[in-house]
């Protein structure tokens, strides 16, 4: 057994059949991979659908998604763990390309950020400018667990995902994997994430939820200078917002108010201008708007009840 495909799921009856159908269509020997669904206590037909596709199904209710993945890893028979989410689909050559890494012993983790649906909204298209790792094969600091392959022995050696984290568990795992070998993003490992936020409100809610584990992860894996911007930029942004509004309401010197508002608007705009590859003004404006929502959500996540 070469690959163990591990799918955490909860109430995914509308999505999991599409994923499992796409896995059935991969051009790779069925004897070399297994499909495992680790259910979190679904009350819909998720488990029945998984059984219909011949998956190995385990039910682990009331635990974090990290614990679901870890349980799957503990039961896996494959040499390589392939983590993918239930609301994704894979390309036909997904596993055949992944098999090229079997003998690359210096690579302990590989994958690629999932792409966006064919009829994506501007929100999805804009945010992919941030999520995407570029084309080709590049060494990266971290990968998303929606499309992540990890050597099983290394995964178990470092203790798997941190089960105390609600989100950001893939970033935490990646940081610990770095000491064991290379992490590679390969754009040929094509998948699509159909659950990516379609609207600004959905995007805000997702980032508010994701941000709840940012600081918890920071204290878990220790100080990493590369992580500081993602931790402190949202705080700085929110501080600028509060200061700007305060100056406006208290009629502070106009020059101070204008300076604060300018800095407040410049932070996401400059970042967007760097990230948008073709520099089209409308795309810079769209991404700048999303970054405002992102910084606000991540900043507010620090005071949200966990």
In short:
It contains 12 helices and 10 strands. The protein is an alpha/beta fold and 306 residues long.
Describe this structure in words.
The chain has 306 residues and is α/β, with parallel strands linked by helices. The protein is built from twelve helices and ten strands. Strand 2 (33-39), helix 2 (46-52) and strand 3 (56-59) form a beta-alpha-beta unit. The two termini are 39 Å apart.
Helix content: 40-55%
Morphology call:
elongated
Biggest sheet, strands in spatial order? 3-2-1-4-8-6-9-7
Largest sheet: 8 strands, mixed
Low-confidence stretches: none
Helix-strand pattern: EHEHEHEEHEHEEHHEEHHHHH
Q: Provide the β-strand percentage band.
A: 15-25%
- Which class do the helix and strand fractions yield? alpha/beta
Averaged pLDDT, please?
A: 87
Quantity of strands, as a count: 10
Distance between the termini: 39 Å
**Helix count from the secondary structure assignment:** 12
**Rg calc:** 21 Å
Question: What would the keywords be for this entry?
Answer:
12 helices; alpha/beta; 306 residues; two-stranded antiparallel sheet
């Amino acid at each position: 057994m070469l690959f163990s495909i591990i799918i955490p799921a909860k109430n995914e009856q509308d999505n999991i059949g599409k994923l499992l159908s796409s896995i059935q269509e991969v051009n790779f020997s069925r004897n070399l991979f297994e499909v495992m669904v680790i259910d979190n206590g679904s009350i819909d037909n998720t488990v029945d659908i998984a059984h219909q596709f011949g998956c190995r199904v385990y039910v682990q209710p009331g635990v974090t998604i990290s614990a679901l993945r870890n349980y799957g890893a503990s039961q896996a028979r494959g040499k390589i763990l392939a983590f993918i989410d239930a609301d994704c689909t894979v390309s036909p050559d997904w596993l055949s390309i992944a098999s090229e890494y079997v003998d690359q012993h210096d690579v302990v983790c590989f994958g690629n950020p999932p792409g966006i649906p064919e009829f994506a909204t501007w929100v999805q298209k804009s945010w992919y400018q941030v999520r995407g790792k570029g084309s080709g094969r590049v060494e990266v600091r971290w990968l998303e667990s929606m499309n992540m392959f990890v050597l099983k022995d290394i995964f178990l050696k470092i203790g798997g995902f941190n089960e105390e984290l609600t989100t950001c568990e893939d970033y935490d795992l990646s940081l610990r994997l770095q000491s064991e070998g290379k992490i590679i993003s390969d754009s040929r490992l094509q998948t699509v994430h159909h659950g990516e936020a379609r609207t600004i409100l959905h995007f805000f809610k997702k980032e508010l939820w994701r941000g709840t584990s940012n600081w918890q992860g920071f204290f878990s894996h220790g100080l990493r200078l590369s992580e500081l911007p993602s931790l402190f930029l949202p705080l700085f942004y929110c501080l600028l917002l509060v200061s700007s509004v305060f100056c406006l309401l208290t009629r502070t010197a106009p020059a101070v108010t204008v300076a604060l508002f300018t800095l407040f608007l410049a932070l996401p705009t400059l970042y967007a201008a760097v990230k948008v590859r073709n520099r089209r003004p409308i795309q810079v404006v769209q991404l700048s708007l999303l970054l405002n929502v992102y910084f606000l959500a991540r900043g507010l996540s620090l005071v949200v009840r966990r």
